Amino acid sequence: MNASNRHPSTSSLVGPLLMVLFGGISLVVGLKSGAESWAFTSRAIRIQGTVLQHDNNIPDEGTSYKNCRAVVSYRIGDKSYEVFGPVRAQPISTGWPKVSAIGSTVTVLYGPDRPEEALVESFEEQLGEGVLFGGLGLTFLLVGIVLLWRRRYRQVCEGGRA
């Protein structure tokens, strides 16, 4: 057995270390996003709104023929506000989940001090980003740690030093 087989080069560390780094950063971003969303949701006031129409002009995508978002109207006192719901499949498509039907009632969350800044209550709007980044981050972090641990275990079993 030659020395290169017994003692893997430092280049074999690059992949696992990048996974740990990427996973750690993504996990922190996910936790931060989840905490901010939880903070908003915990202090938000819930009110019922009505779906006025479907809008297929999706930000950063342009006009979509498969997806749309609900335009929801809600009233606080004498004043009416509108908010966009999450992007979902149009009612005529077979995608899931579908956007709420026009005229249906949905729950709107708004901050007590800023009623014009609201969101439609949904998993995507409240926790989607945190779960996505947190889940991917945790996965990459754990896989990277396992790969580093396996490398170290092999070195110990072969009598090498770390």
Report the biggest beta sheet as strand number plus sense, adding barrel if it closes: 5 strands, antiparallel
Unreliable runs, pLDDT <50, ≥5 residues? none
Query: What is the number of helices?
Result: 3
- Topology as a string of helices (H) and strands (E): HHEEEEEEEH
Structural domains: how many = 1
Strand residue content: 25-35%
Strand order of the largest sheet: 5-4-1-6-7
Cα-to-Cα separation, first versus last residue: 18 Å
Tell the overall outline. Answer: elongated
Percentage of residues in helical conformation: 40-55%
Radius of gyration: 24 Å
Q: Which structural class matches the secondary elements?
A: alpha+beta
Q: What average pLDDT do the residues reach?
A: 79
Query: How many runs of DSSP E, i.e. beta strands?
Result: 7
Question: Would you kindly provide a written description of the structure presented here, covering whatever features stand out?
Answer:
The chain is of the alpha+beta class and 162 residues long. The protein has one domain (22-155). Helix content is 44%, strand content 31%. It is built from three helices and seven strands. The strands form two sheets. A five-stranded antiparallel beta sheet has the order 5-4-1-6-7, covered by helices on one side. Helix 2 (11-43) packs antiparallel against helix 3 (123-157). The longest helix has 35 residues, at 123-157. The chain is elongated, with a radius of gyration of 24 Å. The two termini are 18 Å apart.
